[in-house]
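Throughout this chapter, every protein is written as a compact record of paired, labelled lines. An example of such a record is reproduced below:
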Amino acid sequence: MRLGIDFGTSNSAAAAVIDGAVVPVQFGEQAQFRTSVYFPEVMREVDDFVPNDAQEHQLQQLVDAARRQAQAAGQERPAQALRREALRAVRRDWMEEQMRQPRTSAALLQNAVYGEDALDAYFAEGEGNLVQSPKSMLGYNLHPRARQTITGIATHILEHIRLTAQRQFDTPVREAVLGRPVQFRSSMGEAGNDQALEILQAAATAAGFDRVRFLEEPSAAAMRHHAASDTRHEVVVVDIGGGTTDVAHADVGGALPPAVRRAWGIARGGTDVDLALSLAGYMPLFGRGITRVPNHHYAEAATVHDLTRQREFRLHKYDSVDAPYGPRLQALQDTGNTARLARGVERSKIVLSGAAQHTDTLDYIEPALSVTLQAAGLTQAAESFLGQMRELLAQVAADIGHDPDAVFLTGGMSRAPYVQQVVREAFPRARLVHGDPSFGVVQGLALAASGGLG
């Protein structure tokens, strides 16, 4: 069986085509899960799997068989490479056997917990490791050890997806089409894109996939729109997710296959709005703009997906900062509180997209502490992102030279009315089609997977 996998910055999902219909993978009662993972103990790397005596015997048999096969083909393969491949196969079999045994959710997949449950478990335990939005770090200049850690985290998440799908569909899952943005968030330019794909490829292989193909996410969304269109027409697909905004220009619909002409993208999305809203709406409660605490301290606290910046924030001393701001900053440094704050910021962003105001309580920082935010404040906080989005769409419009027949809008941020307004302004004569904000991309990836990996 082949899966389509949307490994997202904020949320992840997967689906497969069964008897001609796209069927989502169910993670508990949901068809997606927050891209967060909690390890109650020190996170184990993929290479840390230690086989027992029986598994060592199995390993040696696999190595010997692979060596004989290589020799018969006139090849000479290094012993280390043969063992690494055999170890991956033995580990995959072992992990699948673990999944067949009844165990508690905290013990599954080396004690990892995923999604919203990961945050709840982290808050309840007050220790361990919580990793959020690892996709945001794939394109950054990473120390070799940090790269190994990020690869291990991505492996755990992809393995969770594969084994969940395998259990639901009751058939081996070995192949997938994995979505990718046009432009990963990166500190290294195009080299960051290459590194991100290398990490995802290594993680997918370690997670038990034999074959993986990557497809740009707006192209996947175009495939989804194509499947629902009876007549041929020209479309601009705008996919606005947590970490990136991607655009594709395509011909879709009718009897001919979809044809993607070109794609564009920027490494900006919903998490940038979260950061701006956190700094403007929440951080004044902690003294931002009032005390002499440097602004970058507040950015470190708000950037929960960046493990390095989170660690740096926890190392700062605030003993000399006047009350109430010093004690509040110290409380924010307590285990789990930056994650609690980030979840509150995201919830406020969602609520304010359809309400005039919203009050969020921060009693985990200080009794009776709260903040009341206005919808106008959200729009103002989003303005930097919206400005970059306007520039991107203006470039698309200039490159195309005319309005398309339709604009297909998808991705989690496509729910926001201020985002929809920017799209309408960019293509005023095009018909606006609203795709499924959460599942438009993964549905297209599943359709691509069903057609083979090429």
Observations:
- The two ends are 15 Å apart (CA to CA).
